[in-house]
């Protein structure tokens, strides 16, 4: 006989009609942090809608692995279809499995090794251009860099700075619209000609135009490319039918959006923390000055950047870019003694999970040495910046290699110093980004004193 299911409590502070809207709007990150003390599973309400929040790494691991077939990606990912209706990041079921298998070779670790030269030749001139520039908007600069890396490595194209800014602005607009629509799911409002909806449509047009131009160039010069766009254009269904134009457009757009934003904000936080911890900056400079000599940069080079990689991991822990993740139960399922109904909306926050003092000693301290192999490591399921299970981000190794290389290249050339201004605080938008962060680049070595890439 089944045990009586546990009914998770509602978090305190629920108000009739609006639920927990006030603390969510006032400080959603602090509110989600506060939910941990109410147990491994707790409910909140967003207006009339009940949402189940999971705080336990064990339950998250169960939901994302052994019980994953009972869940879809949920409301936030549904709204992210603004980037592409059935692109891999938002696809479900058999379509997701088919597309994942199709794209997997492009993100195999052996293939990522071949991207190192492209990453280097893309990043190096962009950061060299900081010479003589005024204060840098770090989030924008990191987004432009990572966006160009994705486009160069996966699409064999690099936009100029003005075009890159236009694409970047459209990505930000679409992400903001997706989060707004997920937090206030009123489909009727999404169809009205409001200023926000008009901005969203214009942003969508900019993205489609930019991606369509990339695809058109590949079609016009089919023998000139061997990349992800070529892979999609040459793919055939079992009956010999090529992928539909809209499917190719969606996949390329989805990759462009997903592949740049999260790495960019991770790097932004990393350099913010380095500026606050001069001893860590000195350690980074010592490592890159030793490793980045006159020899070509290779995948083997990245394995020697052990402290740099720990900085990346610690930035991912403290400032998990995908700070809020959703799922939805597609059939009745029991999770941790709690019965979840069909259609139940579920959320969890890697940001709050990674700051749980029961999992991470002194969790608010930026400590890259917590990732030293001789130090106790968090339990399985407690560090999931890229998710887990069959929906784990396929580009995780690409992102880690990219972030490690960009950090090292910047540190080999510049010291980044904060510009006086408002206090930096985390903002929980579609990613977790700093409220504002402007820094000046101070040269460390003569421009051009770098090793080459192979």
TrEMBL record:
Keywords: Heme, Iron, Metal-binding, Monooxygenase, Oxidoreductase. Belongs to the cytochrome P450 family. This is Cytochrome P450. It comes from Streptomyces cellulosae.
């Amino acid at each position: 006989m089944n045990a009586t299911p546990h009914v998770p409590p509602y978090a305190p502070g629920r108000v009739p009609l609006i639920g927990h809207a006030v603390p969510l709007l006032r400080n959603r990150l602090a509110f989600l942090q506060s939910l941990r003390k109410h147990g491994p599973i707790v409910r909140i309400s967003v207006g009339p809608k009940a949402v189940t929040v999971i705080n336990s790494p064990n339950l998250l691991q169960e939901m994302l692995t052994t019980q994953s077939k009972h869940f879809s990606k949920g409301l936030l990912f549904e709204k992210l279809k603004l980037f592409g209706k059935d692109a891999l990041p938002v696809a479900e079921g058999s379509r997701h499995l088919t597309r994942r298998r199709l794209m997997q070779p492009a993100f195999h670790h052996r293939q990522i090794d071949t991207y190192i030269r492209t990453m280097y030749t893309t990043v190096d001139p962009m950061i060299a251009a900081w010479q003589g520039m005024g204060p840098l908007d770090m989030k924008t600069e990191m987004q432009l860099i990572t966006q160009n890396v994705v486009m160069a490595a996966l699409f064999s194209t690099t936009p100029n700075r003005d075009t890159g800014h236009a694409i970047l602005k459209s990505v930000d607009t679409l992400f903001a619209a997706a989060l707004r629509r997920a937090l206030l799911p009123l489909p009727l409002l999404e169809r009205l000609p409001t200023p926000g909806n008009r901005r969203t449509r214009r942003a969508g047009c900019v993205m489609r135009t930019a991606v369509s131009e990339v695809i058109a160039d590949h079609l016009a010069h089919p023998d000139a490319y061997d990349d992800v766009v070529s892979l999609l254009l040459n793919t055939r269904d079992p009956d010999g039918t090529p992928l539909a134009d809209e499917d190719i457009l969606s996949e390329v757009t989805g990759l462009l959006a997903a592949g740049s934003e999260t790495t960019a904000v991770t790097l932004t936080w990393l350099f913010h923390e380095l500026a606050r911890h001069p001893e860590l900056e000195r350690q980074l400079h010592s490592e890159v000055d030793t490793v980045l000599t006159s020899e070509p940069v290779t995948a083997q080079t990245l394995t020697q950047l052990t402290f740099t990689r720990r900085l990346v991991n610690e930035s991912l822990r403290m400032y998990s870019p995908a700070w809020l993740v959703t799922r939805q139960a597609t059939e009745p399922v029991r999770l941790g003694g709690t019965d979840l109904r069909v259609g139940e909306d579920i959320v969890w926050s890697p940001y709050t999970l990674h700051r749980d003092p029961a999992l991470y000693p002194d969790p608010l301290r930026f400590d890259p040495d917590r990732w030293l192999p001789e130090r106790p490591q968090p339990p399985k399921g407690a560090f999931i910046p890229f998710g887990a299970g069959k929906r784990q981000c396929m580009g995780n190794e690409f992102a880690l290699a990219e972030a490690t290389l960009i950090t090292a290249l910047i540190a080999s050339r510049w010291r980044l110093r904060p510009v006086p201004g408002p206090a930096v605080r985390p903002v929980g938008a579609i990613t977790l980004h700093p409220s504002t962060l402007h820094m000046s680049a101070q040269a460390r070595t003569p421009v051009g004193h770098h090793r080459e890439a192979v």
